[in-house]
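Minutes, project check-in

Agenda point 3 was the complex the collaborators sent over. CS summarized: two entities, 509 residues total, and the question is how they sit relative to each other. Sequences were read into the notes so everyone works from the same version.
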Amino acid sequence: MIRVRFEPSGLEVDAEPGEAIMDITDANPAADVPYSCRAATCGTCRVEVVEGGEALSVADEFELEVLDIFGDTPDKVRLCCQAKLVGGAADQVTLRVCED
Amino acid sequence: MTSATEAPTIDYDPIYDPFNPEVIANPYPFYERLRDEHPVHYNERMNFYVLSRYDDIFHALRKPQIFSSAQGLTPAKDEISQLGIPPTFIMMDPPDHTRLRRLITKAFTPDTVKDLEPVVRAFVVDCIERMKGKAADGEDVDLIEEIASPLPTMVVANILGVPPEDREKFDPWSDAITSASADFALDVKQAIGAVQGLVSYFGGMCQARRAKPTGDMISKLTQAEIGGDKLTDWDILGFCFVMIAGGNDTTTNLIGNSMRFLHDYPDQHRELLQDPSLIPNAIEEFLRIESVVQGLSRTTTEDVEYHGTVIPSGSKVHNLYASGNRDPRHWGDNADDLDIHREIDRHLSFAQGPHFCIGAHVARLMVRTYFEEMGARIGEGFEIDWDNAVRRQSAFTRGFTKMPLRIEA
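CS then shared the predicted structure for the full assembly.
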């Protein structure tokens, strides 16, 4: 079980390894993460990884390309539409919606 | 010397000129030649470059740092200043674009789209039943006029919170603005009138919603804050402009084009009728095979090289989505064929990158509902009078303006 906290909403959700962050936020709209394309192209769902980045799946080339548009790197920022939880690492992940 | 009755001769670029009537009639042979022989083409007459291969367009759209939207989206260099339009977020680059887009995205959440579905379905059912009634009474029925055009108009108006009595204003505005983008040099005066009408109407609505919010999209935008900043009326007007210009004719054209392809591929039409679960993937294939927006432009912020050709900084680059969507290098040898079972990873019809169409999910909802209800209520019991169907005469969009329909009793 991994506890995922979303900021600035403050919502915390317990989830299992393998679950996609997008599925978690779809099931919990109070997480208040904005989405648009939902397919690693627009970058609307960028979140800052405050803690627990090691519990997120590795970013693929499409996600890396989108992060690069905004000058971001995957150790600090991820796309919620792409990241999944992985087991055996951190048990707490905190993601903060990017402001720009 | 040209006489008063002769049309002036235009020396069209023979490789690709969006205003060439032959291109407007059937652009695909021109696109094929571009991809194969001129993957980076310079149109000297209009002073812009053209990208036509899937990979080139895909990567250009995903590099807004190099391919800027801030100078407009058509090959015309001074498009924005001539139109006098508000600063729409589709003509901005990150981070300004990101700031506005994140706000506006709140109007297109899955829950919002889900809430729209019963409204869309009721409207579609009403349109279809009205068409059937007219047909039964022996009246002429035009699919575009009866459903393909009013459906997105209703949805855009619904999202913006425009009351029903004002909705007839939308179509003339949309037509004028879309035409201006399509045939820029000819219709700029008409577009300015439409823009002024839009600015006046929604300017008044912004003031009213600031004073008394109602919960509609404009109310939300007037109340929204990012980093302590509120959106100005001008920001909101820009959003209204994008919604009307981008949300109306695009869906109309998508429905019209889809009907044409289903006519050309009757077996696949039958399959869709028998198994509506195929509709969502079929819609992606309709989007791929005939992009309603054939392409949009960007402006380079630095020199960039493709296939040995350097595109200088400050150049307009027209990205031909419709060509990339049929590039056999990406889609295989059957790229020109409709295949509703095709595995589609990322077509270009909604663009790529930060400017990915914000209303894509709403468009999909409308077209899916249209096909579900048409299938359930009319099925195969109709025929389109293709001899009298009329294609939109546009340099940058593909669709139909008239599609006479015969419905079996």
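Noted in discussion: Chain B has a mean pLDDT of 88.
Follow-up: revisit at the next meeting once the mutant set is ready.
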